[in-house]
Amino acid sequence: MTTSVTTTDVQHAQTVLSSPALIRLISEIDDNGPLPPRALTRTLADVPEEHLRHCADQARALGLVHVQPGAGLSLTASGEELADVYDALARWARRHSYPAPVCDFTGRIQHTLALLAQPPAGPSKGDPRRRADGVPGSAEDGADFVRLSRLFQEWLRTNPQVVGVADPEAAA
């Protein structure tokens, strides 16, 4: 049985998964391996401690991370897949200079997730190569965006727990 992903599901997931602390946590563990106990605040020193604690709790509740005895905070299979989705979002955004030619990794992910949560739009009046929602307008670019959207929706179908969780920044 295939679970369908609604626009509301995508919008809610976008809110949950766009947390800068969550993006940084998942990406850090994906890039560098498990975070040793008590190393979270040292590793992500620029993120307020209360946001990190809440983010780690949220990531555990979502099944994205778990505590691996002797190693620390590690990604689960769902967390590894989300890291791959984050990487794909950032690569797409960088290739299309979205939202701007110069933007950091977290910002590219946040903006691309927001774009995925918008309903499709028609061509932009200012630039015929760009749709009103910022998606590049060529057929090849459009197909690229559709693949990205399908990747994200597939991840949501296999991780429905994300849709039922509150905004991670709201309680922080």
Any descriptors?
2 strands, mainly alpha, globular, 2 domains, 172 residues, Arc Repressor Mutant, subunit A, disordered C terminus
Written account of the structure:
By secondary structure, the protein is mostly helical. It folds into two domains: 8-76, Arc Repressor Mutant, subunit A (Orthogonal Bundle), CATH 1.10.10.10; 80-160. Helix content is 53%, strand content 5%. It has seven helices and two strands; from the N terminus they run H-H-H-H-E-E-H-H-H. The protein has a two-stranded antiparallel ribbon with strand order 1-2. Helix 1 (7-17) packs antiparallel against helix 6 and helix 2 crosses helix 5. The protein is globular, with a radius of gyration of 17 Å.
**Radius of gyration from the alpha-carbon trace, in angstroms:** 17 Å
The tally of beta strands, per DSSP, is 2
State the end-to-end CA separation. 36 Å
Can you tell me the overall shape? globular
Unreliable stretches (pLDDT < 50, length at least 5) are 122-132, 166-172
Question: How does the helix and strand content classify structurally?
Answer: mainly alpha
Largest sheet: 2 strands, antiparallel
Question: What helical percentage do the residues reach?
Answer: 40-55%
The pLDDT mean sits at 84
What is the chain-wise order of helices and strands?
HHHHEEHHH
Strand content: under 5%
Strand sequence of the main sheet, in spatial order? 1-2
What count of structural domains?
Answer: 2
Helix and strand layout, with pairings?
Layout: H1 7-17, H2 20-32, H3 40-43, H4 49-61, E1 65-68, E2 72-75, H5 77-95, H6 105-116, H7 139-158
Antiparallel strand pairs: 1-2
